[in-house]
């Protein structure tokens, strides 16, 4: 997918760019797989703001994505490639031969009319097919990886992401994640063959503040520009960090601080930490 640059007809258009959307084959979603979505504005069930710089934005509807790929040994045909406002990757609508329809993440190279399937036995490792990592060839590029069998894909789901199946030993297999982390997972966990599509998603330039607001992202002020009462890094005569490390409004380290709980049970499954 290529990037289209706007003509500089206004200051907001001068640096702006967008995706060409040449892969998109349909502009509207499948109604039976769509649900309403209520915007939280960064607030929890008590109405208190727990996530800053969120709110507003265009109205969205939720697409139901099949992350488990548990419809085994039923072939499906790719009907459409569609845009999803709730994620960076595009989605593909599958028409199964028994009449059911489901959405999946659209891998790179998947086209309308392709035949794909999911199975728990050995099948051809074609793009978009899902199977347990126990029956995949070592070295396969994969995405939408489960952490527990049957829980649905949780890793490697954003646009352009890919992981690699490195090895198998006993009931575990080793996967290299996009961050460089080497992690073990049960070989019975499902994964999908291929790389997530929409590679140029991170290369676009919004061009103006209004496009940021359409996405539901509100403005943010630097902590150093605030008063001491409003932020740990605020205050000082002129520009001053006040002797503080970069941190959030609540005092959580923002750069370089370790945030992972060292007592997590899954820590022993990480063979090499991320870069």
CATH-derived topology of the domain at 20-35 and 60-200 and 265-272:
SH3 type barrels
CATH class of the domain at 20-35 and 60-200 and 265-272: Mainly Beta
Helix share, percent: under 10%
Rg, Cα atoms, Å: 22 Å
Description of the molecule:
With 275 residues, the chain is mainly beta. It has a domain at 20-35 and 60-200 and 265-272: SH3 type barrels (Roll), CATH 2.30.30. The chain has helices at residues 11-14, 209-214, and strands at 3-5, 17-19, 34-36, 61-63, 76-82, 91-96, 101-105, 115-116, 130-132, 141-143, 145-146, 153-155, 163-169, 172-176, 182-186, 190-193, 270-272. Strands 9-16-10-13-14-15-17 form a 7-stranded antiparallel sheet, with no helix packed on it. Strands 7-6-5-8 form a 4-stranded antiparallel sheet, with no helix packed on it. It has a two-stranded antiparallel sheet with strand order 1-2. The mean pLDDT is 93.
Strands, helices and their partners?
Layout: E1 3-5, H1 11-14, E2 17-19, E3 34-36, E4 61-63, E5 76-82, E6 91-96, E7 101-105, E8 115-116, E9 130-132, E10 141-143, E11 145-146, E12 153-155, E13 163-169, E14 172-176, E15 182-186, E16 190-193, H2 209-214, E17 270-272
Antiparallel strand pairs: 1-2, 3-4, 5-6, 5-8, 6-7, 9-16, 10-13, 10-16, 11-12, 13-14, 14-15, 15-17
For this entry, give a set of tags.
mainly beta, seven-stranded antiparallel β-sheet, four-stranded antiparallel β-sheet, globular, SH3 type barrels, 275 residues
